Amino acid sequence: MSRPPSYWASYSSLPDQDYDDKNSYSVSTSPLPPLSSTSTIQSSEPKDKLKVIDSESQLPSSSSAPPSRLKIFFAVASQILFAILVTILNKQALNVVRAPLLMLSLQMAFTATMVKVYWRLSSNASQTLHLSSVKQLKKFIFVKILGIVSKTYCLSFVPVSFYQISRGLLLPFTILLSFLLLRQKTHIFPLTGCFLVMLGFVFGVQFEQHVPFIGVALGIWSSFTTAIESVAVKHYVHEFPTFDLIYIFATYMSAFCLCLSVFSLELFNVVKTVSGAEVTKFSLILLAASCSNFYLNIATFTQIKVTSPVSYMISVAARGVLQTIFAVTFLHETLYVNRIYGVILILGGTTLYTLAKERERRMAN
């Protein structure tokens, strides 16, 4: 399999859907004249008509329909549900044992194992890419690992009710990267929504007194890495099978995080300081989080495949309200005034941006 081109360049030219290049032709069943140096085949069609037929044969067939609204809704809803579950469960696990690298290593090992089991039990699916394909997928693996590790470290330093605000610059970073790398321009009206998102971030951070500075810094950094991830993954999900991508990046990420956990002495500190009761509680929460994370990977890849990067970012921002409600309900976190206004402004700006982009799309069509 040939090495895929750079994802930034390829994404800008990536088609919305695949087409079937095969065309149907009517072929005469009458016998052909004998072949000889003087024999010719006469066409009953005019030359101009033949040219039209030949040019039409180059057009793609419309038999491949775009994803249905039901499929898009199911993909987005599943991604939001499992993302909230993973966030809540990961935060609970980190509250018991603060070892983000070890947690990610075990989760990714579980995900890779589940994919292997699926291939073993399924009669219609099989592995097409092997671990040696890392050279083809090195950019994809790097971006995924960077994004997930950044989000997890941010979550370990901030409460879930503030997690959405700390990563509030997700949409502005996506728009900026789309302009710088894909040359996609955004008009003034949609940028008004982006301004509200930035205002929500500033308002939520400016008056926050219960979160360390490193949590805010990691939120900004993870927003940037997630914006890169959303655009980069869009290319690869169209080029390679979903389960193969999940298996390869989960396997390498598990090994990478385990090595970092050992060399950073995180694993050593866990073994030295954590009690048996804490290990048991951490393991049970981690098992539930790993199951949710496995389905989250499938839902995320599916959503990115059937939606645009900006739509993906919008769903990420929109689930902040539900995530905050879950944090207050199940984790008993305190919802301060600045967090309430910050989430409202971020969600309102995201909604305004969505409506403006949809209006532009309809006017263009």
From TrEMBL:
Any GO BP annotation: phosphoenolpyruvate transmembrane import into Golgi lumen
Domain Sugar phosphate transporter stretches: 81-353
Compartment(s) where it occurs, according to its Swiss-Prot or TrEMBL record: Membrane
Any one Gene Ontology molecular-function term assigned to this protein's record: phosphoenolpyruvate transmembrane transporter activity
GO cellular component: Golgi apparatus; membrane
Annotated TM spans: 72-89, 101-119, 140-158, 189-207, 213-233, 245-267, 279-298, 336-356
Keywords: Membrane, Transmembrane, Transmembrane helix
Its membrane topology: Multi-pass membrane protein
Pfam family, one: TPT
Compositional bias of kind Low complexity: 24-44
Source organism, top-level taxon: Eukaryota
Region described as Disordered: spans on this chain: 1-48
Name of the featured protein: Triose phosphate transporter
Species, as recorded: Schizosaccharomyces cryophilus (strain OY26 / ATCC MYA-4695 / CBS 11777 / NBRC 106824 / NRRL Y48691)
